[in-house]
Design goal:
InterPro entries: Acyl_transf_3_dom, Glucan_succinyl_AcylTrfase. It contains 14 helices and no strands. It is an all-alpha fold and about 375 residues long.
């Protein structure tokens, strides 16, 4: 199995989570925000949604791909029992804690802002993603260990030859197109707690693992053909925007989604596959920030939305507020209070210097912080 550290994959997850925060903040300024459980500004910025429609077809699938890649690294030195125990600590415990303690907090703010009766409402909320990931681990683990134990078998060689061709990744997209055609989601980008989101996530997780399993071939291909995939993605987006009012048939959106993802893989692999002290820090921070960002965002909206400000200024201020407060909560509380660390997917003890040395030597995705 591949042992070289992959800084680009760490960056992929960090960038995807940062964009997810911005995407969620943009939802607050859409007239339909309440229908998806978000607080809503009375002064919408509907024009803000145009760039978000470019983002929303790949923002979640890319995280599922990266999570499958993370499992590949996590399996290197663990048997199946060790891996399930480690996934339970890293994924299931934060999911359960978030279900009963974090998501109810932002639901409380939602109730308060909309002046409805206050109540305790435990639910997955934005953490549905973690529940799906844990299911995929249990579902695919026998297959992945079977592949690992086969070593350099025939399947791996055939798979590598397929991925060496620029059409190979596009052929993988056929599975995603079939999912969209069979499940028929009314809105492609509604992933949370839907069968469409579950099956699409399963495919992305599965192929994320296989892309790493196939060795460097996939990465060489997407790096070489990154601009081609990007042009194809832009063309499909233009078609969707002009001909279909931003919601094309599912199979076209699935193909567009994968083209964006392959282009991003190639760009990040080309430009960001190098060490950085900032990367070491952000890799640790990304998972806790993902868990707490909805509460922080709703709290900021509660304070900012009533102010007499232009809605674009509110959007910018809310974005800055969310990132800064999430950083402060992570740095001053979550990172430093030992009992909180495992609830947010971090190791029990800080191990600052030792931990940072480990991060420099080993792929961070081996720890699977989504």
């Amino acid at each position: 199995m591949e042992t070289a550290r992959r800084y680009d994959i760490d960056w992929l997850r960090i960038i995807a989570i940062a964009l997810l925060l911005i995407y969620h903040i943009a939802i607050i300024f859409q007239p339909w925000a309440m229908f998806v459980g978000f607080v809503r500004s009375e002064r919408p910025l509907e024009g803000l949604w145009t760039p978000m429609t470019m983002l929303n077809v790949w923002r979640i699938p890319i995280l599922f791909f990266v999570s499958g890649m993370g499992l590949y690294f996590a399996m290197r030195k663990r048997n199946w029992k060790q891996l399930i125990g480690e996934r339970t600590r890293r994924i299931l415990i934060p999911f359960v804690f978030g279900f009963v303690a974090i998501s109810p907090l932002h639901m409380y703010l939602f109730q308060a802002i909309n002046e409805v009766p206050l109540g305790y409402y435990p639910h997955a909320g934005h953490l549905w993603f973690l529940g799906n990931i844990f299911c995929y681990v249990l579902l695919f683990l026998p297959v992945f260990y079977a592949l690992k134990n086969r070593g350099e078998g025939r399947f791996k060689k055939v798979w590598g030859r397929l991925l060496a061709h620029p059409g190979g990744p596009l052929l993988v997209s056929v599975f995603f197109m079939l999912e969209a055609a069979l499940v028929k989601p009314q809105i492609f980008s509604l992933y949370a707690e839907t069968w469409h989101g579950f099956f699409l996530g399963a495919l992305a997780f599965f192929f994320g693992y296989l892309f790493m399993y196939g060795g460097p071939t996939f990465w060489q291909t997407v790096k070489k053909w990154k601009w081609g995939y990007l042009l194809l993605a832009l063309g499909l987006y233009a078609l969707r925007y002009i001909e279909f009012n931003r919601e094309a048939p599912g199979y076209l959106m699935a193909l567009e989604s994968n083209c964006w993802i392959y282009a991003i893989f190639g760009l990040v692999h080309h430009y960001l596959n190098r060490p950085s002290r900032v990367l070491v820090y952000l890799t640790q921070a990304a998972y806790p920030v993902y868990i707490i960002h909805m509460f922080v965002m709703f709290f900021g909206a509660w304070w900012l939305l009533p102010l007499a400000m232009h809605p674009m200024a509110q959007f910018v201020c809310l974005t800055v507020f969310t990132f800064i407060v999430c950083y402060l909560l992570y740095e001053l509380l979550i990172r430093r209070v030992g009992v909180l660390r495992p609830l947010f997917g971090l190791p029990w003890k800080s191990k600052r210097q030792k931990g940072e040395k480990l991060l420099i030597k080993e792929p961070t995705l081996a720890k699977e912080t989504n």
